[in-house]
Design a protein that fits this description.
Low-confidence stretches: none
Helix content: 40-55%
Number of strands: 8
Strand content: 5-15%
Mean pLDDT: 88
Number of helices: 25
Radius of gyration: 31 Å
Oligomer: single chain
Distance between the termini: 72 Å
Structural class: alpha/beta
Strand order of the largest sheet: 1-6-3-4-2-5
Length: 598
């Protein structure tokens, strides 16, 4: 690790196995403990496997920063997670070489990476209690790490243990001993790392900060773009490379002003799921790369991989698709588009139209892929007469989707993870279909409902709504706004942003003394009942401190409300459990009609 002439910091690319042989490594006390999650460990294992399968000359695992604190001992300032994880992989393989396959040579090589041992001697895992580990993790991880690399039984808690389980599960996927011998050989001979050696007189933390806090980290679009570019690296591909570059930059340009940093990546995932089916958000880049390779292989030999990737890059960056996604996820930015759709679907002024659906589904991003797939059918239909028919079918399907999502949210809890894969795969089916799905969409949602809460059964939904409580401002607003919108002249004036949830019987028990109509009933059991909830608009007069003292005082204020459903409450003579129950029954019936499913 010689410092280049004229520079203070030495840098060189070395094999990971050679780095381990440089001496011993300690993690400074102030650094965090081992914190790689299971997905991080699995990603490294799969990356190495993929590189080995593709016979790559090397697999580069990034940079580490080390400082020599004494002769042969180095302090790890950056790279602890990778170094520890690679050493755990070697430890798991070492156990196999020692106990299952009995490969003495590889066992000794693995031990030399794990312990401060010299070459030329016979080393055995069974004697590892006497060997000194090369890596000394932070104190809380140290004992457990030593047990792992020495082949001893380990506990069940902690990130290190989770990492070990992932590695063991990975190695247990095959009984082919030769496969793991090749895997180990690839780690020893092809895993490369950029090693930065910082002299003692320079603050290594300043170097770490510069490397990790300057510039911009790569998002999904950056990674995917680099993967696509790799197919057009030769000088003969200049024209197609420029076309691909322009296409992918178009995606970033359209979403450059998005409030969420990875808006471009969100679009790309939505668009590619409509083509390929479900791609995990947590491993999107890896899934994208895998599915592209699989689909390209299916297309060969008629279509070379480069042609497939070139067409894919242009396809996902079509201007009309980019604009459609922007309009659907930022609906307030495209009132003209929404109005045009409503004209063609004959839903202008309807209490259930595209503008309403976009507002209701806005908080459920898991629906965006289905929403995009449906609306794409409308956008890409060139025949005007057919487009109007498609618009009506799309509107009907969006009504069903909103009914399923909102009904589920009202009576239970809508769990995106339960539906993400099914929604994405069905969006791909919609995109591949020649025509426009209709009854198939309804049956798909019914099937989703059967495996969850069965809320599409009107009688069951109405019964639960008539007896249930509800918390959460977003969900309550969606319910009451939907009901208030039905036939109300003030519906267009209300939105989630300009209203608030009002509890008729107040939440605070310090106010319950004046509510004489509750008698022996426990007020706390009625506060969150749906029948006790209403809306207050921003323009309504703000009451004084005595507002919560009695229903009579509240009724005076409600009578002046700009919200129709709240003014109706003012016409009631009393407010009691019976009144709440009666009003909740009315709301339940209305909710069943508003979010009807047909």
């Amino acid at each position: 690790m010689n410092t280049a002439q004229g520079t203070a910091i030495g840098a060189e690319a070395v094999l990971f196995s050679s780095l381990f042989h440089k001496g011993r490594f300690v993690v400074p006390w102030h650094q965090r403990y081992y914190d790689w999650g299971e997905q991080d460990v699995e990603a490294l294992l799969l990356d190495i496997q993929e590189a080995m399968r593709e016979a790559r000359r090397c697999y580069f695992v990034g940079a580490v920063i080390v400082t020599e604190v004494e002769n042969g001992t180095w302090e790890i300032n950056d790279g602890q997670q990778r170094m520890v994880t690679v050493s755990l992989i070697c430890a798991a393989l070492c156990r196999r070489f020692a106990e299952e396959t009995y490969d003495a040579q590889r066992e000794a090589l693995a031990l030399r990476m794990l312990f401060d041992l010299h070459s030329g001697s016979v080393w055995r895992l069974e004697e590892a209690e006497h060997y000194r580990p090369r890596i000394e993790p932070p104190l809380n991880d140290r004992m457990q790490y030593r047990q792992m690399i020495r082949g001893n039984t380990i506990g069940t808690n902690g990130k290190l243990t989770s990492a070990w389980r992932v590695i063991e599960d990975f190695l247990g996927t095959t009984n082919d001993d030769r496969k793991w011998e090749e895997y180990f050989d690839y780690i020893c001979g092809h895993l490369e790392v950029a090693c930065l050696r910082v002299p003692g007189e320079i603050d290594p933390n300043a170097v770490f900060e510069t490397i990790n806090c300057r510039g911009k980290s790569l998002d999904d679009l950056d990674l995917i773009r680099n993967f696509i570019y790799s197919h057009f690296s030769t000088g003969r591909e200049t024209q197609r490379r420029d076309t691909v570059h322009d296409s992918l930059e178009r995606i970033r340009h359209v979403f450059r002003n998005g409030r969420r940093l990875n808006k471009a990546g969100e679009y790309l995932r939505c668009r590619t799921q409509c083509r390929f089916g479900y791609l995990s958000k947590d491993t999107f880049y890896r899934d994208f790369r895998r599915v592209v390779r699989e689909e390209a292989a299916k297309a060969r030999p008629k279509r070379p991989t480069k042609d497939f990737v070139f067409d894919l890059a242009r396809d996902v960056a079509r201007p009309e698709d980019l604009e459609l996604y922007r309009r659907l996820t930022i609906p307030t930015a495209s009132p003209e588009f929404v109005h045009e759709f409503e004209v063609k679907s004959r839903t202008t002024g309807s209490p259930r139209n595209l503008a309403v659906f976009l507002r209701e589904l806005k908080g459920y991003s898991v629906t965006h892929t289905l929403l995009f797939a449906l609306m794409s059918k409308y956008v890409h239909e060139a025949d005007g007469r057919k487009q109007r028919r498609v618009a009506r079918l799309v509107n009907a399907n969006l009504s069903r989707l909103a009914a399923f999502v909102l009904r589920t949210a009202f009576v239970a809890k809508f769990e995106p993870s339960h539906f993400e894969k099914r929604f994405a795969d069905f969006a791909a089916d919609i995109s591949r279909s020649e025509g426009m799905v209709d009854r198939e969409f309804a049956e798909f949602l019914r099937d989703c409902d059967r495996t969850e809460h069965n809320v599409l059964d009107d009688a069951r939904f109405e019964l639960i709504m008539a007896t249930g409580q509800m918390r959460g401002a977003q969900k309550i607003k969606a319910l009451l706004l939907g009901i208030n919108r039905q036939g109300r002249h003030d519906a267009a004036l209300l939105s989630e942003a300009n209203c608030s949830v009002e509890h008729v019987l107040p939440i605070g028990e310090e106010h319950w003394k004046g509510w004489k109509d509750f008698g022996a009933a426990e007020p706390g059991e009625w506060v969150h009942r749906v029948g006790n909830l209403t809306l207050a608009a921003k323009g309504d007069n703000k009451p004084g401190g005595k507002f919560n003292g009695s229903f009579e005082r509240k009724a005076e204020v409600y009578a002046e409300s700009s919200v129709a459903m709240t003014r109706e409450i003012a016409g009631r003579q009393t407010w009691s459990p019976a009144e709440i129950e009666s009003r909740q029954g009315e709301i339940a019936k209305l909710a069943t009609r508003v979010w009807s499913f047909s």
